[in-house]
Please model this.
Amino acid sequence: MDQQPILKSGLITLLAGMSATAAFAATGFIAEFGRDQLLGINLSDWSVQRLTLLAGRCAADSFFLVLNLQERHWILVTVCVVAAGAGMVLLRHRKLPAWAAPAAECALAVPLLIWLLMSITNFEGPTVPLRGWIMAPNGQSPLSTAIRQLHPTVSASSVAAGSRDYVKSAVTATAASPGVTRLSEYYYGNRSDGPGALLLESSSDEVGQQLKAIGFTYHARDAARNLLYNGYARVVTVCILALLYILLSRQSPESKLWGDLLTVVRVAVIITSGVATVLLPYVYGKLVDSTLFSNCHIAYTDPTAKTNPQGGEFPVISQTDTSLSLLWIQSGGGHTQIIQIPRDKVLSLEFESDVDALAKISKCIEQPGSECQ
Model:
């Protein structure tokens, strides 16, 4: 038996497996990078296993969000698929003028290019300035930081009477502090209907009401979450369509004019789809898989505390074999800290369902109680 084909196929399989693992790890790295930027912390767990799992979660969530979007608009999807299929059959099996095929491809590629550009500028780009929404700088409230990033030009006169502390803090800090990054003053940050505003509104109705008080478009919590996920699903959809277009566009027109025009259009689609596709896991890490953490009731010993043991209800930011990292939220003010508890100091630990950290910060501001410290 000739061993050469076996060795060749085995090497190809090995390289394909390594490439898939590297692609998943890179996707997970980008998603984790975006998530850490939004939270304002570094979770410090960059193992290949964790990044691969995060990439798998990104792929699965993206797939189901796209299916959900198609189910809601199945009539439009069906019409588009039938029209595209009929057009391909007509172009391949009917004798048409030489310009018909390249003109049809341009008629398909130009709207696709416009859709890609709109996805980058209206949805993916505005996520770049969103930083420090769990751990704000200088002891500020993360919600104040978030609101200031979304609306850096907000004025004190636009705040309605009775607004909560984190809105007032955002107004006061507008002139006093540049926030987490200078990018918060960029054009993308000043959008009242962008993904950042939808993310805040989807975490808490109270925050949505306060955003409304300073001129933002108000959406109820469930409506904001649906708009956010539908926007992400549309970006995934256009990236998939761009990939299919790149793979299937193979015609070479005899006319030099049409050939040059198709080359320009194809290069533009390749570049913009590459940017949009690379930003997909970044956007996923910031908007879809960002602020949900496991909630736990914990009791632990603290030698530095006057009373012993200590405990309470906290979102678990990260956990290892040696320690737990918990999110501490100040009651009434909303300031946050990370508390690291060694495993050997834990007396009891009870996990509950996931909790939205932004919603819990808002609750601790609006309704101070036992869940906050």
Residues 302 and 308 are 6 Å apart (CA to CA). The domain at 292-366 is CATH 2.30.30 (SH3 type barrels.). Confidence is low (pLDDT under 50) at residues 155-163, 173-190.
